Structures are given as structure tokens and as C-alpha cells.
Amino acid sequence: MLKSVQALQALLLAALLLPAGFATAHEYQAGELQIAHPWSQELPPNAPTVAAYFVIHNTGKNADRLLGVDSPISGKAELHEHVQQGDLMKMQQVPNVAIAPGATVTFAPMAYHVMLLELKDRSLLSDGKRFPLTLHFEKSGDVTVEVAVQKQAPAGSQEHMHAQ
Ligand SMILES: [Cu+2]
């Protein structure tokens, strides 16, 4: 009994010591898809594009597909991936992203990402703010998530300045 109390105290302490980013972790559900912690790196105010990231986990037995995204803060939103071209990593648009049953698909710097272009409203693009992003899935339908803008990339994602 004493041991488990100590373990619990250790856990609570660990939770308190986690970096601030963890406190804002948030999750959404669309059918059998879980969308974890949508976030975006705070960029200089004149940045022409903004990227958004999240992790999609398919808890179901059916494949699904992310067909597209949109946000009221941008005129255009695209799905991108990074590909190796010689020595360079380049990003390119993809028509959709398959989410196999049981799969976890990570949108992160240097991987799949949402690219917001033709930015209309930059008021929500600073550290600590959130902006809406709607994901359109083939089977699970539409789900609107709040993308947390943060200076620090969340733990577990690679540090990377998005190449234009
Ligand atoms: Cu991109």
C-alpha cells in the first residue's frame, strides 16, 4: 500500500514537472479516428505559410483517408509530405493520406503536414493561441480541431524550421 502511494506521488510529481507544452495537449475523435494534439510552430509575423501537425490513430477495423483540410484563417490549405530529392528534402502536395486500420499516422516537421497558404488572419498565430482547422475524412466525415500555436515543438516531434 505504502509503495503504491509513493508511486502515485512520483507520478503526480512527474506530471507537475512536465514541460508546459504537455499541459495544452488535447485530443479529438472522428468516428474511430483519434486526432491527438494539433499544433503549429509560432513563426515570424511575415511568414508566407504556416504548417500544422497532429497524430491520427485509427482504432477501428476499416481503412480511412484524409481527403483534405481547410481553415478560416487561410485561403488555401494543402496536404504535404517531405520527400528526399538527392541531398535535399523537398516538400510536395499529396492528394490524400491513407489511414490504415490500427495505424498511427504522424504529421510532424519533415513528414506529412498541413500547409496553410494565402493567410487571411494572423491574429491567432502567436504562442498560446489556437486556430480552427477542419479535417475531411472519406468515411469518418468532418471534424474541426483547434490547432495550438506554440514556440516550442511538443516533446517527441523533431525540431525543424519549415523550409519554404
Ligand atoms: Cu509544406
Descriptive labels:
mainly beta, Immunoglobulin-like, 11-stranded mixed beta sheet, disordered C terminus, binds copper (II) ion
Structure explained in plain terms:
The chain is mostly beta strands. The chain has one domain: Immunoglobulin-like, CATH 2.60.40. Helices cover 12% and strands 48% of the residues. The chain has two helices and eleven strands; from the N terminus they run ααβββββββββββ. The chain has helices at residues 2-17, 20-23; strands spanning 27-30, 33-41, 50-58, 64-70, 74-85, 88-93, 97-99, 104-107, 113-119, 130-137, 141-150. Strands 1, 2, 3, 4, 5, 6, 7, 8, 9, 10 and 11 form an eleven-stranded mixed β-sheet that branches. The protein is globular, with a radius of gyration of 17 Å. The chain starts with a helix and ends in a 14-residue tail after the last strand. The relative contact order is 0.25. Residues 159-164 have low confidence and may be disordered. It binds copper (II) ion. Copper (II) ion binds at residues 51, 80, 91, 113, 115.
